[in-house]
Structures are given as C-alpha cells and as structure tokens.
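Many introductory courses stop at the sequence. We go one step further.
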Amino acid sequence: MGDILFLAHRVPFPPNRGDKIRSANLLRKLATLGRVHVGCFAESAEDFAGVAELETLAATKCVVKRSKPLVLAGAEAVLSGKPVSLTAFYSAQLQQWVCDSIAGGQIDTIVVFSGQMGQYVPDGYNGRVIVDLCDVDSAKFENYAAAGDRVWLNVREGRLLAIEEERLARRADITTLISQNEAALFRSRLCNPSDVSVEVLGNGIDAESFDPSRVEPHPELLDQAGPHFVFTGQMDYRPNESAALWAIEKFVPVMRAAYPDGMVHIVGRNPTPVLTAHDGASGVRVWGEVPDVKPFLAGADCVIAPLLIARGVQNKVLEAMAMARPVMLTNDAATGIAAKDGEHLLIANADPAEMLARFEALEETPDIGAAARQFVLEHHAWNAMLAPLSGFVNGQQEARNAA
C-alpha cells in the first residue's frame, strides 16, 4: 500500500486534551500501517514543543502557526458563505503543501481528523478518503443556539456545518464517528444515508498510565476533610465552562449544607475569567492547568461531569473510571459509554439534590470504582478501539459491506 496523508486541526502532541488524545492515537496507529505525512496547525509554544514527537512518526510534515484572529475568520466566513470553523482553519500554505504532497504520486489514502480539515482534500484526488468527524459538530452549535447562546451566529454555524458534514460524507469512502449514538445521529441528518458509509471508531484510554496503583492523591485532597468532588477538562471549552459554573453555583451550596468541609475542585487549563473569579469561594477551588490531573482524580471522593451539552465520548469520564473512582455524570456526558448506571458509574439529572443523594448512596455500592476500571480495561483499550482502522485504510470495509 502507498503512503498516508494525515490532516489534523491541531498538533496531536502532547496528547493532553480530548481531541489531541484521539488524533495522537490515530496517528500512532496509522504509522504502523505505512509512511505517514502530517499536516496540522499549532497555536501555542506547547504545540510547537510537540512537533519533536510528531517527527518521530511522520515521514514529512507541515506545521502551520494558527494566528488568524477570530474577527477576521468571521468576516471571511460571512463574505464566503462558509462556516467560521472552516475559515478559522484555512491556510494557503497548508493547501499548497497538501497539493504538492499528492502530486508526488505516493499518497494512496487521506485521513482527515475533524471536519475543519476536509476542505484540504482536492476535488481531483482519486485515492481513498477517510474522514473522522469524531462527533456531530453541527448539532453542538444547534444546541448552543437552543440554549440561547449567540443564537444568530450558532444557528448559522450549525446550518453551514451540517452542509459541510454531508459534503464530506459523500466525498469520503468512510466517515467515522466516536460512538453508535453519534453515528446514528449523523445518519439521521443525512439526505439518503444509505448512499454513504458511516462507521464507528471509538475512543480508548491508556489504562496503564491511568492506573490508581501508580498514583498518589494530591496532598490538598488527601489532608483536608472533604468530601472532594473533582471536575476536569479544558475550561475554555464552552460545555466544560458551563458545567463548571453549574457545579459552583448550583451544586456547591447544596453540598456544603450537608458537608460543611466539602469541596468542588475545577481542574483544567485555561479557566475563563468567570470561573477564576470563583476560586477561593466557600467550597470552591479553581486550579487551572496542573502538571498532572491524575493525583486529583486519585484524591477525589467522587469525580463529576455535570455536562449540559455533550457530544461523543468524554475522555474525562474514561480517565476517571480507569482511576477506579466513582464517577457521577449527566445523561449527556454518559453518551457513548455502555457502562451500567449504578454498577460502573452514576447517572443523574442536572439537579443538585439528586446528585448529592446519589453520592450519599455510594456506601451501598462500595465496589463501583473497581467495577469502573474493569469496564474500561475490557471495553475501551485503544488497540481494540482502533482495530478497524487497518481495514478502513486498506479498503476491506467495502468488501465486508458487499459480502
């Protein structure tokens, strides 16, 4: 088989946030199948530092600094009739590199990670195209609009992204999504879904790294009375910010009434000003970026994921389960994880009293953390999740469909 061109909207390394964890593992798997050429964007010094690891896997690379202001991307989107998600990630330099790479005649397969990067696949390219949408971004923007958040902009973005997602699905040989739920949602939004090939490529977890026997709890969680509730994630990502605010404003007062020493810890990089303003308030600690999230998970009496809007599979939930912690989450956050409520995790409505009651009932299921880790080991190892990728790249999926 020939070479593979892998296009990602961020440098996959270091794999320290959900999208980068997935793209890094995709790239590692692809590198076992053939020579891989990587085109991607970098936004920070951390991203550029990750290029060294990228070079160990890529035969060639093109890393473009993404510095286009959002206002400029928005203006370009309005003038061109495109989604902001596309104009924000467009680079003439990267487009030329893609064309030059394909012109060499060695690229048999293009793997697109995230819908923003599908715009780089040339119309005349006749090799295989695999598009990993991960989740249905257009639906996410529709949810933002339905929640009253920048309604006109999000309605427009959702509508135009839905058009682009359909275009990509019809351009691709295979379109992959992160869970059966996301795949079903995506098919339901397509015209004539039987004309496109939609498959599931699930998210995994590095259970060796997230091993509770190898991690000491953070001293502040270990030494203080608690109970300690921990919420992790990229805190400038709107669904995470909204969930963190809900935990601070709604859950903390109810929890502190029952547990005067109880704490909610918000752990993750780039907390917005509205979040940092709550740091130090009664029962609240906003940590921001930390060297390692695992000590906070290890010290948690309960890991929470009170997401009000969620797409795909939440890595933060899998990580906490791998660390053998009790995890309490909303129905949206549980989407795509086939674990059983009450056996492997706890699912609750976004209701403070209900969440507190479920936490207090944990004494009745003392082994839920161990069951959570075992579930992850059996169902979410990366090797198992990415096993179908070889067949997708080599065209074997079409043969199975035809059989």
